[in-house]
Amino acid sequence: MLKIDYLSLPGLPVLSFEIAAGECLAVEGPSGSGKTRLLRAIADLDPADGYVFLEGVERRELPAPQWRRRVRYAAAEPAWWGAAAREHFPPTAKLDRLLSALGLDAELLDRPLAQLSTGERQRLGLIRAIADEPQVLLLDEPTAALDAQNAALAEELIKFQVLAGRILILVSHDPGQIARLAQGHLLLNRTPARDSDSSQSAAA
Amino acid sequence: MSAVDLSWIDLALAAALLVVNGAISLAFGLRLEASLAVAAIRMAVQLAAIGFVLKFVFVQTSPLWTLLIAVVMVSVAGYELMQRQERRLRGWWAYGFGHLTLLLVGGLSTLYAVIVVIGPAPWYAPRYVLPILGMVLGNTLTSLSLALQILTEGAERERTSIEARLALGATRLEAFAPVLRRALRTALTPLLNIMSVAGVVTLPGMMTGQILAGADPAEAAKYQIMIMFVLTGAAGFGALVAGLGGVLLLTDNRHRLRLDRLAPARAAV
User: Fold this and answer.
1) CB A167 within 8 A of CB A137
2) Contact B160 A77 (CB under 8 A)
3) B121 lies in some domain
4) What is the pTM of this model?
5) Do residues B154 and B183 lie in contact, with contact meaning Cβ atoms separated by under 8 Å?
6) What is the extent of the structural domain holding A125?
7) Which domain holds residue B204?
8) B86 and B149 part of one domain
9) What is the pLDDT of chain A when averaged over all its residues?
10) Angle at alpha carbon of residue A177, lines to A14 and A182, rounded to 5°
11) Shortest CA gap B183–chain A (Å)
């Protein structure tokens, strides 16, 4: 269970909620309402007051890298640091099943990332986020750059993660996707909050 | 053999060369006459003043005076280091960090060069300690400011990929590894270049000075070789300390990227 307790972000009401294993919570709200900032705070990528517990363990009780291996934030646009996708995975990672689930050719792993389409990079980013099986997935518009057919494949893979007992917080602008995946909803209302310098919200 | 002493008339003759610069400035409307005059006078006054100060300190040969001058040199270098950054780290501790790095690196490598390598008596003899400290600080300053520059620029430009690595569970040092590597490489490049051309294209200033002062050129070369090793070692050590420290200052103990700790960009001085 993921428990958010009195999490406080600038310009947002103090938030408390819980998500059980095998459930998906959809975070909705207009652009700039703080959806991305909420996900980043839960992954401990931005400082925020309040508590986040995973199975009773508060985020500060674990070294941050360990927390983020369990609570995985995947940005709307995955960023890459190497020339080809393969460098971004541990050498031992088993990717064949994931690649074929998303309709990707294994050969893409060694192609220069600059030659891939936005959609291919987004699907590789999704694979990167789930390959090491984190318990919590914080997905920021995971299918925004995909056509309907590939979005459906990605959605299937995401759904499978939830069925496997993982916890999902989903930011999406697709009401149909939210209806198909999410059991709970969290609505963030736009407040005239200034954009904090260290968050990259507003991109939504 | 000793150098020919320069008289005030000799200096005036050399200063006459500036008239050429002034004429160029006037002829082409560069409007540099005033700046030229101010810079020339500043240079002359500063060098004359430091000449008198050093003369006084050398005569005393007191560890306290040596230490005092060394502290002043480190402070000025530390201030200059932070002034050179296009995007400075915020807060007094950033200044403290720059000064401490220079103090640590400058102090250790100067002491090593003077005590272990040269071995004058007494070991704190200012005529050895202060010039070597000056050269070490000057070169370390360049290396440190390059390392910090590349580091802060890289952190900004590669922010999304650094954060992607952090989100995947990398530590801050792992996430910064490519940027840090580039910062260290860049910091060491100037000294590599200087070493490669030393004696072929350029005759290093210290060696030239010793030769003018009447030293045996072979002895002067040995001194210069020793100094180049010390400077390179200091630059490497300094870049490492500044690079690692810079990563720690640009992140926090929860391994988050903290670009909010950089002051807003401004024009480089």
Assistant:
1) yes
2) yes
3) yes
4) 0.84
5) yes
6) 2-187
7) 62-261
8) yes
9) 91
10) 45
11) 16
